[in-house]
Amino acid sequence: MPHTTITAKDGGSFQAYVAMPAKTPAPALVVIQEIFGVNQVMRDLTDSFAAMGYLAICPDVFWRIEPGIDITDRTEAEWQKAFELLGKFDVDTGVQDLIASLDHARGTKECTGKAGSVGYCLGGRLAYLMATRSDAQANVSYYGVGLDGLMAEAGGISAPFLAHVAEKDGFVPPEAQAKFVPVLEAHPKAAVHIYQGQDHAFARVGGKHYDKVSADLANQRTRDFLARHLG
Q1: Is the pTM of this model over 0.85?
Q2: E strand residue ranges, 121-206
Q3: DSSP category for residue 114
Q4: How far is C-alpha 50 from the geometric centre of its chain's CA atoms?
Q5: Can 169 be counted among the known catalytic residues?
Q6: What range defines the domain where residue 53 resides?
Q7: What is the DSSP letter of 29?
Q8: Whole-angstrom distance, CA of residue 179 vs CA of residue 150
Q9: To which H or E segment does residue 118 belong?
Q10: How far apart are CA 209 and CA 25, in angstroms?
């Protein structure tokens, strides 16, 4: 399993799963995990982005709490563990670690110098913050949680940002969506797609709420978006 070691901006180091494209140099993509760690779902996603031609890396954002988390959404115990980790996770420090990951990927000889991010669930929130706080050149959020409390930062979006929103997201209720969807829709650098009738993690293959039609549509939009802005 290929990994790379990334040096954090405040010291220490952490691991990231790496998937290399067939041809380099290539644009880089930081793939940001859900609350279940760098598990098989995230590794498969990272591999799929490499197959599209990106130098894809998926950093362990929980490393400061417990390195090497690799759990699933299959059992109640794993859900409890995931939420325990989420409760201990410091978002601001996590974003700094993602920026370090972005810089690390950009600095490799296999990268063209262009780089972006794509995140899911917690990673969807972090991808939004990469749009507001980093110099990533494109950022994609899948069913990001907690965006309603972060719209004060929307003015910081300077590069293209794409958000996939599940209409019936159990973790992002209508009142929360009402606080961020209009703000993003009005932003010249942002685009929002709402997937009618879909619940959280509709694009997680094998997940309880997976919907192939909506997932395929969201993934095609992501491919087109990344090709346009990072290609």
Answers
A1: yes
A2: 139-142, 161-166, 190-195
A3: E
A4: 15
A5: yes
A6: 3-230
A7: E
A8: 10
A9: strand 111-120
A10: 36
Q: How many domains does the chain have?
A: 1
Conformational region of residue 40, where left means phi above 0, alpha means psi within -120 to 50, and beta covers everything else = alpha
- The active-site residue out of 60, 73, 97, 169 is 169
Q: Which one from 104, 164, 199, 200 is the annotated catalytic residue?
A: 200
Summarised one tens digit per residue, pLDDT across range 114-163 is 999 999 999 999 999 999 999 999 999 999 999 999 999 999 999 999 99
Helix extents (H) in 52-172: 76-88, 91-106, 122-133
> What CATH number should be reported for the domain holding residue 86?
3.40.50.1820
Structure tokens at 50: 């490499």
Looking only at the bridges linking them, the beta strands covering 26-32 and 111-120 are parallel
The token pair at 141 is 């959020």
In whole angstroms, give the CA distance from residue 97 to residue 117.
13
The reply to whether 216 belongs to the active site is: no
Find tokens 């180091």 and name the residue: 13
Tell me the pLDDT tens digit for each residue of 63-111: 999 999 999 999 999 999 999 999 999 999 999 999 999 999 999 999 9
